[in-house]
Amino acid sequence: MIDTTIIEARNATHAAELTRDYDTLGEKLSRKGVDIDAIKDRAKGFSVAVPSWGTGTGGTRFARFPGEGEPRDIFDKLDDCGVIHKLTGAAGSVSLHIPWDKADPADLLAKAEEHGLSFDAMNSNTFQDQPDQAQSYKFGSLSHVDAATRAQAVEHNLECIEIGESLGSKALTVWIGDGANFPGQTHMGRQFERYLSSMKDIYKGLPEDWSIFSEHKIYEPAFYSTVVQDWGSSLLTAQELGDKAKCLVDLGHHAPNVNIEMIVSRLIHAGKLGGFHFNDSKYGDDDLDSGTIEPYRLFLVWNELVDAEGTPGLDLSHMIDQSHNVTDPIESLMISAVEIQRAYVQASLVDRAALAAYQQENDALMASATLRAAFRTDVEPILQMARFEAGAAIDPVMTYRASGYRAKVASERPKVSGAGGGIV
Amino acid sequence: MIDTTIIEARNATHAAELTRDYDTLGEKLSRKGVDIDAIKDRAKGFSVAVPSWGTGTGGTRFARFPGEGEPRDIFDKLDDCGVIHKLTGAAGSVSLHIPWDKADPADLLAKAEEHGLSFDAMNSNTFQDQPDQAQSYKFGSLSHVDAATRAQAVEHNLECIEIGESLGSKALTVWIGDGANFPGQTHMGRQFERYLSSMKDIYKGLPEDWSIFSEHKIYEPAFYSTVVQDWGSSLLTAQELGDKAKCLVDLGHHAPNVNIEMIVSRLIHAGKLGGFHFNDSKYGDDDLDSGTIEPYRLFLVWNELVDAEGTPGLDLSHMIDQSHNVTDPIESLMISAVEIQRAYVQASLVDRAALAAYQQENDALMASATLRAAFRTDVEPILQMARFEAGAAIDPVMTYRASGYRAKVASERPKVSGAGGGIV
Amino acid sequence: MIDTTIIEARNATHAAELTRDYDTLGEKLSRKGVDIDAIKDRAKGFSVAVPSWGTGTGGTRFARFPGEGEPRDIFDKLDDCGVIHKLTGAAGSVSLHIPWDKADPADLLAKAEEHGLSFDAMNSNTFQDQPDQAQSYKFGSLSHVDAATRAQAVEHNLECIEIGESLGSKALTVWIGDGANFPGQTHMGRQFERYLSSMKDIYKGLPEDWSIFSEHKIYEPAFYSTVVQDWGSSLLTAQELGDKAKCLVDLGHHAPNVNIEMIVSRLIHAGKLGGFHFNDSKYGDDDLDSGTIEPYRLFLVWNELVDAEGTPGLDLSHMIDQSHNVTDPIESLMISAVEIQRAYVQASLVDRAALAAYQQENDALMASATLRAAFRTDVEPILQMARFEAGAAIDPVMTYRASGYRAKVASERPKVSGAGGGIV
Amino acid sequence: MIDTTIIEARNATHAAELTRDYDTLGEKLSRKGVDIDAIKDRAKGFSVAVPSWGTGTGGTRFARFPGEGEPRDIFDKLDDCGVIHKLTGAAGSVSLHIPWDKADPADLLAKAEEHGLSFDAMNSNTFQDQPDQAQSYKFGSLSHVDAATRAQAVEHNLECIEIGESLGSKALTVWIGDGANFPGQTHMGRQFERYLSSMKDIYKGLPEDWSIFSEHKIYEPAFYSTVVQDWGSSLLTAQELGDKAKCLVDLGHHAPNVNIEMIVSRLIHAGKLGGFHFNDSKYGDDDLDSGTIEPYRLFLVWNELVDAEGTPGLDLSHMIDQSHNVTDPIESLMISAVEIQRAYVQASLVDRAALAAYQQENDALMASATLRAAFRTDVEPILQMARFEAGAAIDPVMTYRASGYRAKVASERPKVSGAGGGIV
User: Which domains does chain A possess?
Assistant: First the structure.
């Protein structure tokens, strides 16, 4: 969709400066014993999954303000994902959401292949009612008091697995909105037991080489209690299900002030860390662009992950999960993929031998300075070179804007009018 | 809409017990020098405004699950408000939201009169785009960088005043979602200046006997910064506008842990407290039913208000502002009106002379115990007697259920299907 | 220490009114099928442990403002605890803190017997350095990088067990301040492993009929990360140790907004709830008097506990853990014991059959109302009657003040001058 | 105290690399039209005040773990401050705390001159009781119910001004711990009025060319309410006092999630921003080292300040206010001064013309990217060159360690033993 010549033309204007900056940084890193090419190769090997639904403009319960060229269906979304990957080289897979993305698997595979994309974790949806649905999820899904509703929700998850199998996916992410808006509305203990029972039914249908991810969230859409409210409940779930069950951490799903990188560390300890939903936030589950609010927090999460590389059984799934309300979603997803990659590269620069020594000596000041030294390294040339060598864009956003892609799809995809959110 | 005979029949089954409980409580209070009838008369004089939109089932950005008999328009909503007031005797006014509630003023007045309702503060809406709107509010309204958009938003507010004048309203509440989702998206200082400039334009159109309420909110729908993010910015706004400008406090619009009753106290000190939006919350702007999460906090707010009675210039507007996602909105609004009234009555029982003496002696333990003694008084018989004497229902919810009102309107109002929120 | 005649004299002035109020409430409860005497007997059977150190005036890092008659040692503290129990009848055990309370076991047992007190869970202290200590805990204790420091901390805990055995205690509570003030200061994974290893060493020394409680806390004294930061880490600890290891929940040790009653429910599900530290808080680990900030939250916690009565293996330890900075500690502890007892009694009034039915029907409004109906019941006459019948004071605070106890001990215990906290 | 030859020797080992890195960065910045020397000169002109008390090891209410060579008095502290300034060139003034730092003004001036230091804002202390004090601050100081206590606190502040005048200080910072631990303990409105009345008495004694800073804090040491709890109350205070009264923002004194840079912007709008207390925090008023937890937040604050340069009447006071519990305080203060300077320099690199244009176009993505581009610039060579040219150390920490200063003072200053904090 983005002509390679456009990328090449834009890259040509940056190449000389990039080479100079890359060499300069390389020299500087080499003084510390770091081989910039090795780091760049790590960057090239990095990929994060894009959520299909992230390509459309998001909204709040108050309103949604669509942009131009909103994707009409999963095929439009895959086209948009193709652009993201082509320009960044760092987003080679897509995570589907069922039923929003239901389509003929052969068509999906063909479209994905066209863009060099694969399919990451499948996402089920039991937080909304679909038009043809027998039972309503108003009062819950997998944890509903009514067995028929639970069965319907289980069945839907099994269908997601089935679709995923046909697409080469290897994981199912289960996030439910079940909970309560009032003290007393549910019996919290029995509700959790019903949830676990349903999850076990799903687990029985999980192929041997699949994982199931339990995703916690402190609140929203339930505002008093949520069945899987934190990593503790998520851990209990994964423990009771079995080895194929892991916990997924969404960076925006925690109580204020919580130390997320420590949760990462604890789940690694427990052998139950499965993956991430990347985004950024200031207040609640704001779903803002990754790395735009607290970039150091993102770095600290990656610091744990890079540190844990090589841990037996640790095989993480990385996905972006954001809502793009005021930007072009393609631009936000490109920048987010790059910011996540940036934190990964910065974390790869941490002098771990020095850090371990400072920790052993309780030299808190220098240990902390060691992390900051890696974080403040401007790795932009590494990221740019990784893209350049991969045939992606040195400057993804400007190349995208130069390509006229948005205007083109705007002419093909009908205009969507603004709409209120859930409050009206 | 609710036949008086139904109320009377239900009340008859409770009257004997009520009399006994009321007398017993009266005797107990009299020992402390409190005249129960005086307190009951305060309860009878209490009224809180109902938000017209609160009569419909609310939702989140994830989904909305409508109930049966959803109101189709403002006339249905006024019918529902009529039920609420008839059964509680504590909700005699309605707060309209423009443009959702636009209709012929004469028809609105006739319908209100039918139910014995009046019109409270008007609410403008510049956080959503309307179908026929020239300028979009995607990037702000009263604080937008574009003058034409600001002018449109000002014009809308002036129209709200105009409509309100025809309905006997005396106040305009301005809440805007303007802000930013990214650091740098807006220049926070200039954005605030644009907001103030627009507010001054609205203020110029405010009738002499009207008030304009500035309502703050820490976040949502903007997730990095909000123009009127807290009471400090709201205070600056009211100060710069003039005497008719006051601050409105919504109980759910604060940062975690914030002492809301202290903000009430400070705004009273500054002569700028104008009114309340009542609801309850645990995490963010959860918009849960008043008094269901932290009833003591609601009491402490009322404790400040009752204490400040008689302060020159203090004339507060009280409104419910909630989202009813899992209950019958009429039931939630009735119970909420009662819970707000309950806190008001409990706060009226505080022994203020004793409290002042303990405060003077730094007897923190007994001062605190004095508040709790009032709070733990079970004033249910007072509330019930106030309703009984006013011809309302001793037990509003059960009487409502017995009336069959919901089933009746469900047969008249078309079924609404579930829908996703802003995220799809 | 408090002469029984004083209690009897004060009670005599209240007895007639109490009888009337008790009977009236009894009649009212009987209409709902509740036997007030059965509830009162539950109240009489209730007891919460008092922390020995709570009898002294607490402070902050900024300052401590001692009162008159500060206890000089554990024997003075036990005298104060004796007063608390004598006047409330609800605080029959004391929780000791080692090394602060080290003394000859025989003397301790004799003093406790004098007051009718027993010894609850033992508390170890590895968050402070003692004068004679070989290794410093500045950089940690059970999780320290240095094996000798860890061994010293383990040894101290084993000594606490040994002391506890001589006193009839059956549990050890382990709370440590270990963590970090800087990202990078510690390797969070290895630090946790060292902690677990130390805990296993302690566990090996635990008598068969003892429990060990793991207590989590989000922050303070460590301000970036804490080894046992939440119930998830506490759960992992208890799971790895074995059946005698349980989790202890301190109400003030959570992130903002966290649903504590849900954590209670989850730990019950996991078979790992061991006990509580009661207090109240608005911001952090404020250690305010129980039930004075959010009484409904305390009720909701008790609602879970009462609901879970009869769960096999559930045998909870209840202790107050507060800091009394501006009140007479004896008064605060008496009132706190009563407020905890009050919430327990209120929770005992929940109509659980009705609640379960509403939950089954997804009648959120009535389910929630069912809890509130129990909470708003003014159970004061039940608490008073329970005390009266037990020979304690109907009005503990006024009886205490009438007794002149504080003035008496002030004359015997030397005056303590004010002092700065940790910041100077 | 640090021999210049040591600095020169250490610098000599870094000079060649520094020159290369500085030139390389200069070339890169020049491509964007930025003159690195101009930025470096800004860095050289930067200075932040050091709090005298920060040179001692801090603690919590649980414990304090002193290090070696703790300063015994203000003269030792000034020696330590001299080291900090000599090695960083960025900390040329000291902020005194009375009564901790009371001494003969002539001696203080002589000692300061010896180190090239001046005296920044004076800090009063009415949150602790001093041994010789007539009235206790247990229940408040400037807002106490008792007139004699308020008068004593006012008198103390006037004395601080008097001392400051003799030292060349031009500002008084007032922070009080007054508040309440219980709902009802104080009448919040009257308490505020008493506070304002006392502040007016202090204001009357303020020299014409002085400023008085009102500092807010949400909680601690008061745990239910605090008299000046947020910037709204601080603003009201400054407004009621007059032109010489401004608000001081401590980065750690806010509710969770609060947007601090927005408060900065609002206070600039109101003409009431007076200064800062820099530190970092994750949970409460953690008083951690500046820039170590959320460096981007520090940058965003500086972004507002640099943007507002040239605003008439804006003349800010910058001070570090931290507690160094696990590091050598001299090292922490040096690194903190550098991190604050770093954020200032990064903020100076923001392309404000481009930013303004993006803001005008609602190009949120590029506006946000513009800030991040400045933030991620590794300005280390600029900071190092600024120090190098000023005769300070290219690497302050390693130079300090090489100097043996700590060991030297440890041999002169008596060892301090560990102590419990306020809780014992």
Answer: 47-343 (3.20.20.150)
